[in-house]
Amino acid sequence: MLPSTDSLVSLALQEDLAFGDLTSTAIFPPGHRSTARIVARQPLVVCGLEVAAQVFERVDAKLVVKPLLQDGKPAKAGEVLMQVSGATRSLLAAERTALNFLQRLCGIATHAQRYADVVKVQGSAVRIADTRKTTPGWRALEKYAVRCGGCHNHRFSLGEHVMIKDNHVAAAGSIRKAVAAAREAAPHLSRIEVEADTLEQVSAAVAAGADVILLDNMQPAQIKAAIKRIAGKALVEISGGVNLQNLAKYLLPGVDVISIGALTHSAPAADLSMEMRAGSSAR
Amino acid sequence: MLPSTDSLVSLALQEDLAFGDLTSTAIFPPGHRSTARIVARQPLVVCGLEVAAQVFERVDAKLVVKPLLQDGKPAKAGEVLMQVSGATRSLLAAERTALNFLQRLCGIATHAQRYADVVKVQGSAVRIADTRKTTPGWRALEKYAVRCGGCHNHRFSLGEHVMIKDNHVAAAGSIRKAVAAAREAAPHLSRIEVEADTLEQVSAAVAAGADVILLDNMQPAQIKAAIKRIAGKALVEISGGVNLQNLAKYLLPGVDVISIGALTHSAPAADLSMEMRAGSSAR
Amino acid sequence: MLPSTDSLVSLALQEDLAFGDLTSTAIFPPGHRSTARIVARQPLVVCGLEVAAQVFERVDAKLVVKPLLQDGKPAKAGEVLMQVSGATRSLLAAERTALNFLQRLCGIATHAQRYADVVKVQGSAVRIADTRKTTPGWRALEKYAVRCGGCHNHRFSLGEHVMIKDNHVAAAGSIRKAVAAAREAAPHLSRIEVEADTLEQVSAAVAAGADVILLDNMQPAQIKAAIKRIAGKALVEISGGVNLQNLAKYLLPGVDVISIGALTHSAPAADLSMEMRAGSSAR
Amino acid sequence: MLPSTDSLVSLALQEDLAFGDLTSTAIFPPGHRSTARIVARQPLVVCGLEVAAQVFERVDAKLVVKPLLQDGKPAKAGEVLMQVSGATRSLLAAERTALNFLQRLCGIATHAQRYADVVKVQGSAVRIADTRKTTPGWRALEKYAVRCGGCHNHRFSLGEHVMIKDNHVAAAGSIRKAVAAAREAAPHLSRIEVEADTLEQVSAAVAAGADVILLDNMQPAQIKAAIKRIAGKALVEISGGVNLQNLAKYLLPGVDVISIGALTHSAPAADLSMEMRAGSSAR
Amino acid sequence: MLPSTDSLVSLALQEDLAFGDLTSTAIFPPGHRSTARIVARQPLVVCGLEVAAQVFERVDAKLVVKPLLQDGKPAKAGEVLMQVSGATRSLLAAERTALNFLQRLCGIATHAQRYADVVKVQGSAVRIADTRKTTPGWRALEKYAVRCGGCHNHRFSLGEHVMIKDNHVAAAGSIRKAVAAAREAAPHLSRIEVEADTLEQVSAAVAAGADVILLDNMQPAQIKAAIKRIAGKALVEISGGVNLQNLAKYLLPGVDVISIGALTHSAPAADLSMEMRAGSSAR
Amino acid sequence: MLPSTDSLVSLALQEDLAFGDLTSTAIFPPGHRSTARIVARQPLVVCGLEVAAQVFERVDAKLVVKPLLQDGKPAKAGEVLMQVSGATRSLLAAERTALNFLQRLCGIATHAQRYADVVKVQGSAVRIADTRKTTPGWRALEKYAVRCGGCHNHRFSLGEHVMIKDNHVAAAGSIRKAVAAAREAAPHLSRIEVEADTLEQVSAAVAAGADVILLDNMQPAQIKAAIKRIAGKALVEISGGVNLQNLAKYLLPGVDVISIGALTHSAPAADLSMEMRAGSSAR
Questions:
Q1: Which is the catalytic residue, given B16, B211, B216, B256?
Q2: CB contact under 8 A, D154 and E188
Q3: Which pLDDT score, from 0 to 100, does residue C1 have?
Q4: pLDDT of F3 higher than 80
Q5: pLDDT tops 70 at residue D264
Q6: Beta-carbon separation of D237 and E211 below 8 A
Q7: What is the C-alpha separation between A125 and A146, in angstroms, rounded?
Q8: Which residues of B touch C144 (CB under 8 A)?
Q9: Among the four residues B108, B143, C24, E185, which has the most C-beta atoms within 10 Å?
Q10: Which residues of F184-210 are buried (b: 16+ CB within 10 A; e: fewer)?
Q11: Tens digits of residue pLDDT in A152-187
């Protein structure tokens, strides 16, 4: 349903199938039919069934695609995510591209869920959010996978919200001036976030009326001090140096959001495969 | 220079900049100029300078891009990969997209080099090769990164070479028939690879005249037995279950290629950042 | 600099020049050169010089484009906005497309300024904002034109902020539940706006913690009552039935934003022309 | 059915839905279904039902679209143009884009009909024609809307017919030479039109064998004199300064065509809305 | 300069270079430079220098392209059409695609000239015109090549002019009704052509006021009779069964145009090659 | 099914139908239905039914397309390849584009079969292969047509296999060094071909371990000498100067492949037409 996915699927099919599938065309007659099952080979969070279906349908509009699970739900090792039947040539032509989409999206969703689980176990209400450190061309899909894994999205693009960093402050003259300039220029629905490296900057951001304050690369003790200064006048986001191992100690009272680039840029691929059975149950 | 990169850069700019950069437009006047440096924050293998340059130039054709290192070369933590000067608004608009390309490509190249280094240390001549398990839309770029890291490429697409698997054998009736059908249909420059799970299949593949035999998920002992049967009549590729930790024990005499999907699908992102200095040296 | 403009310029050149320019090719030899001036034929607010320049450069990369005014500035009737020199064939091939972009963008900027001027004359701090009622394909450009005319932008797309209307409330069960569901799902930087048709809905929206309340199609008296209920706990936006003639009476204390679809969908085209002089000064 | 519409619809969906619809996704479960009706809120000439249907179908191929009126027919205020049923999320995601197409196309068709009505009332056979002053990217659609409103099209692009203006005459040396050069170069199906500002030019155009003569910015008296000189040897087109108010006095005997840029570039948007009812009759 | 050429060049580079040039990358270091010359290996009419230049520049913007001849001019066997210098890798990557464009365009131009020469030798003023039987994707380029060869273009697309055939007449009820319907609907600049298979149809077409009459598949004697009936009241086009060998006998007085599909669909490729010399003069 | 065909069909529809079909829209009411038959007007090898079907379906998704023959099979003059029923306007709008695809693809397949027939008549096992001398944008389709005609494909692109020519040898220093460099860089599935103009080069290529040796522009006597030197250590390909007339004398023992550019670049178009019958049998 996301319009940008169309282009990415086109690129993906183009790069694998520009000249067809030499092997399957040589061996399977056009009328040979099979049923394929996409199977999880590890426990994972399902994500990407729609785009995988789109890959199969773009390769051959006559393939019959039947999702058996739902995005955002867990799959056990061995569980079947979706079934596709039709021409064997088409199934094999689409196989790798469909799996490549799924392994990345399930990988991110599964990775995100690990973070979300830590938060849940700790009984915290902190949001774990992604960043704009996504794979070029995959922004919307990867952010969707983060949501499937139970985490949250930060802004989608540079055009929605304001994030004021060092360079902006230097150019504007002060945090106050930067916030004022951004508030004047931005749509009234856009929140303004200020990145702070020091407690002085935190105080200045509060005074400037920032809606969100990003505590960048601060240690827990410094974070606590910052939260005291903010005193509920802005949302508190922390970022930098947080990982699965040390996440628990950042789940401090007063923290609203922890944003983590690794959610999208370093999630390992999930392990999935496609199993085929000649003949076709689906008619 | 790769034509498909154009489309991916377009998608990437579109997703981050469809409505411009709210923050920088609000704060920097159009005439404000800076110099930016892309800096490695970890030791890494450089990869992607050209596509990063393309990102900057597509955002603003007047930016002056100066690469300081070369793809395929190592960078130390703190080393500057490239420098870009021009309008501050343009530099900040391109920053995240350029870094997102670099962090993935340097990440893969750096990851690949770890495998290549094990081979070198062991004094082996085995090739480490990638697979088609690449990020959709990124096939050409990721395979280029693998080469930058000192590893090799397997086939690029389904249209170039023949890879015969279980399903093909079942449909053809035998390995011999499958190889014959493929040989007849494929271009005379295409090699034919047969996947074998058992020693019987290995023997059948040799007898069928396969150019390359893929020993799928075999343990070292079985691999040795297979190599004996192949006896130099085909190239020997192994795949499945090989990782950085156990790679050394697969570097057996007679093995030509080890292919590893994780080279591309699970390399962690490299850590890079862009540092800015107001004003522009390049004028 | 906006990535989506590229595609629109491509469509525009394609539709006028798919088979070249029959007339000019028949009459002007390729070496014939001219200088063209884009002239305002009415007082207007300049907008679109960059996209017009892009049209000329895409038709012929050797044309020399020189902007003489700046987007967002006024031009008097007869004033020259930009000058372009080079091959006469190229200038004439680009003429209509460049003017078609400019007449629409200057038209919107000029129209917007009339609204902004009423606000200024009244000494009000109310923002006049656009809506998503833009020409398909032109969202980013038209919203830019609104800013050039001194007005503000509402949200750019459905993916940035939350706007809760009747249907959402009905499905969620109450305004409170709708706001809560949206708050949970939306990025922490997204503000939540609730559309209210009655004072009861206004009170419910305040109680639900809406960030912005849209008073839809209310008359001034009702608006005043609503503002009293809101009491500064949310931004106040009004929409519906406001036009240049009656704008002044909606500039009430407590109103933050007035959004007006006609800013973009019904602005008359500005009158501009291109004047040519054979020969080329720019050599 | 027009191939260029595809690209425009893609751009339009991309700009509104690149990251989905935050609000509806948060509130409506995927299975929630509704029926939507597109309603005229003013008397209008229908135009664009096919492209609106395409918007809905591109957002969700399972939506059931049922047109209730036909392009080119009148709709009264309150009349339903089309009905769409299916997933509520999809209906709301497509709503604004579909309406944005319809409001512009119905707007132009409705505007064009006002001109056509004046001609009819006067009992004239003059054609009212559009120009190439269309919205970039919208050429084919807007010219279609003009036809729906009962007016006619001028040429579609620079590549079809010949239109000789001042610059061409100056470069060719004379109207006669310009017409001869164009006649020689143009396809034999292309007519040649000459723009004339003076009666001398009119005579020269007739002598040169122009198929159509454009009387540019002439007053009725001068037009009558020109028509006398043309004496049926060419079609007579007039352009410049004609509007709804003064149209009647230009409907002179001997005039074949009056072309008016405002038909496309300054038609106000038609007022339409989409009304929703939860549940779906179409099942 | 033609906008559609961009897309075709993209497709062409994509299909040959999606994964780069294996051979040249393996052997030439990036800094290796050469000068290449595109040489005619047969006498030909030059056509396509601009699109060939575009191919080189798209592969590598730093290549220096120098055309040495001009489109539409003759080249002798051995003559150099253009010279390109720069990185050897880039020259070889672009070579085949550039030659593939040139061999087709020069082939058509050269083929067309043979027809034009027969006309010239016979002292006839008949136009030889192409048809819409062009290679999909190549319409504008192939029609340009026809002009370079001294022949003329028929209509470019279905959207410009009217061509009434049997089916239209059957549906309309008569030639007269078909012409009237088309005249009413078509732009006033569009000419109306009627296809006639018999002399009765010729008479009907004249009576209906057709601008051009196409004598389809008639023999010279029948053509003469038709011309007599037309008596100058319409342009006379003949089509069907005309080839280089029998062209002369169709060059009858009263014939205006002969259209020939083979001009574009069956022209043999021209023979050209690219010769390289290591090192680069252009530095 | 080939992804690149999509883009070519888009370009083709765009160039013929950007502004619709003036004639048919004027004459046929939208509800008028017909059945069309694509008929061979000469004996030919069928090729392109799928892409022709795609053209009809892209113009109007409701057309019912029924293929009556199969790609790769012969059609006699007068035989019907496919039948399409539905709206007459849509059938006529798609007609020329569908035929233009078919006439080129059937033309190439038919042409290729003439070569394949010579080989068969001579009882030879030599493969006739195409080259990369294809129409830009048509690589995959034209190579498919070659296979339909019973011939074989050479490599598809520069990125799959290695072809070492004079320039590479000069830069590498020797054939041996060039082969070694290519072997090291290329994927292990890629074969390496060396072009040889002399017997010395043939010997050097054999010694260097080339997989395939291309004997370029050699006469039969020289070819025999070369084959003796190669002695089965490499595949033997010959190219240059071979045509239908002299093919038989190149079918020498020891020759594996003969590659011929004219297969794709100079095949004459096949003659096909579309016949219409008002009304529609297919419901």
A1: B216
A2: yes
A3: 56
A4: no
A5: yes
A6: no
A7: 17
A8: 20
A9: B108
A10: ebbbbbbbbbbbbbeeebbbbbbebeb
A11: 999 999 999 999 999 999 999 999 999 999 999 999
List all residues of chain B from 17 to 36 with a beta carbon under 8 Å from chain D: 18
In angstroms, what CA-CA distances link B144 with B274, C279, D79, E22, F231? Answer: 23, 50, 60, 12, 37
Q: Which residues pair with A273 in a beta bridge?
A: A39
User: Rounded distance, CA D267 to CA D272, Å?
Assistant: 15
- Please tell me which residue in E58, E66, E96, E114 is annotated as part of the active site: E96
pLDDT of residue B283: 38
Write the pLDDT tens digit of every residue in B98-124: 999 999 999 999 999 999 999 999 999
Average confidence (pLDDT) over E185-192? 96
CA distance E1 to D279: 53
Instruction: Report the alpha-carbon distance of residue A206 to residue A256 in Å, rounded.
Output: 16
Per-residue pLDDT, B279: 78
Residue D30 near residue D51, CB atoms below 8 Å: no
Burial degree of A26 (CB within 10 A; 0-12, 13-18, 19+): buried
Predicted confidence (pLDDT) at residue A281 exceeds the cutoff of 50? no
User: B157 contacts in A (CB within 8 Å)?
Assistant: 15-19
Give pLDDT, residue A216.
96
Annotated active-site residue in E139, E165, E183, E224: E165
DSSP 8-state symbol, F51: H
- Report residue E140's pLDDT band, with 50, 70 and 90 as the boundaries: very high
Which F residues in the span 211-240 are in contact with C, Cβ-Cβ below 8 Å? none
Tell me the H-state helices in E73-196.
Answer: 88-121, 139-148, 166-172, 175-185
Give the pLDDT band (50/70/90) at residue B278.
Answer: confident
The beta strand positions in chain E, using DSSP E, are 33-40, 44-45, 64-67, 74-75, 80-87, 127-129, 162-164, 192-196, 212-216, 235-239, 257-259, 272-278
| pLDDT on residue F4 | 75
Rounded Cα distance, D161 and E157, in Å? 12
- Rounded to 5°, angle at Cα B55 from B52 and B58: 150
Beta strands in F143-267 (DSSP E): 162-164, 192-196, 212-216, 235-239, 257-259
Give the count of alpha carbons within 13 A of E24, CB side only. 22
Rounded Cα–Cα distance for residues E249 and D97 (Å): 60
- Out of D159, D188, D193, whose CB is closest to E189? D193
Is the pLDDT at F148 greater than 80, yes or no? yes
Q: pLDDT tens across B62-78, in order?
A: 999 999 999 999 999 99
Please list the active-site residues of A. Answer: 96, 133, 165, 195, 216
How far is it, in rounded angstroms, from Cα E41 to Cα E110? 13
CB contact under 8 A, E167 and F93: no
pLDDT of residue E278: 85
In whole angstroms, give the CA distance from residue B222 to residue C111: 79
Residues in chain B: 283
Centroid of chain to Cα F271: 17
**Distance (Å, rounded) from C-alpha D138 to C-alpha A62?**
34
Instruction: Give the model's pLDDT for residue C278.
Output: 85
D191 touches chain E (CB under 8 A): yes
Q: What is the pLDDT of residues C65-88, one digit of tens each?
A: 999 999 999 999 999 999 999 999
